[in-house]
Amino acid sequence: MILVDTVYQRVLALANKEQRGYVTPQEFNLLANQAQMEIFEQYFYDQKSEDQNLKNSTEFSNVDEMLDEKLSIFKTTQALTVAGSIGTLPNNMYRLGSLFYASSLIEVEQVTEEELMYLQQSPLAKPSVYCPAFVRSGGDVVTLYPTPLTAINLNYIRMPLKVNWGYSVINDKALYNGTPGVSTDFELHKSDETELVYKILSLAGIVVVKPGLGTYAEQQIAAQKTQEKQ
């Protein structure tokens, strides 16, 4: 976890040091969430480049130890909301892992509509309570075969919580308010803090028309990437 106030203060300090302008709390909150999602999504792109150096394996993908550690906070198991044979996936889900019967831990296999058609025509391969299946459609909806006789759980990777630098205005100045529910910290790994700061500065140069900040931040990100490869 990365403290939202620490990141904002670093962003302000660098912007002031480079005399590139001021990033308001409203601008920061907008850019902070965009930057967090970009880094979060980068975790999954990084997995592909690590496939040649596998150290461990999960149902989501093969990742090295650091990527697995970064993703661990987002891995979630919970009951699937089911009505008849229709299940609704959580609205905070980023990537689906698996569905399984909670009582027996029998996994529900994901199939396509075409595969399901062929399975149902075979007496031996037809979905059953011992070999259930599901078809995903509409993004957050799954259809279960056969209609479940027991509770269904799912493993998935959720999206990060929305970041917010909360504040109270005192004497016309925004002062940090760290009260839970008012402010929300980043859920990214601590090792991503520096990249997060520079990415917010880079986005500030693009989104809120502070081009000097964007150029400076992009140079710092490039330098950091080069150093990591050495």
Short description:
By secondary structure, the chain is of the alpha+beta class. It has six helices and twelve strands. The protein starts with a helix and ends with a helix.
Series of H and E elements? HHEEHEEEEEHEEEEEHH
Largest sheet: 8 strands, mixed
Q: What oligomeric assembly is this protein in?
A: single chain
Morphology: elongated
Terminal-residue CA separation:
26 Å
Helix proportion range? 25-40%
- When the domains are counted, the total is 2
Order of neighbouring strands in the sheet with most strands? 3-10-6-7-8-9-5-4
Count the E strands.
12
Overall structural class, as computed from helix and strand content, comes to alpha+beta
Contiguous runs where pLDDT drops below 50 for at least 5 residues: none
Radius of gyration: 23 Å
- β-strand percent reads 15-25%
Mean pLDDT comes to: 86
Number of helices: 6
Polypeptide structure, described:
- The model has no long low-confidence stretch (mean pLDDT 86).
- The protein has helices at 4-17, 25-49, 65-72, 113-120, 193-207, 211-229; strands at 56-57, 62-63, 75-79, 81-83, 86-88, 93-101, 107-110, 133-137, 141-145, 152-158, 167-170, 173-176.
- 39% of the residues lie in helices and 23% in strands.
- The longest helix is centred in the first third of the chain and has 25 residues, at 25-49.
- It has an 8-stranded mixed beta sheet, with no helix packed on it.
- By secondary structure, the protein is of the alpha+beta class.
- Helix 1 packs across helix 5, helix 2 (25-49) crosses helix 5 and helix 5 (193-207) runs antiparallel to helix 6 (211-229).
- It folds into 2 domains: 4-70 and 160-229, no CATH class; 75-158, no CATH class.
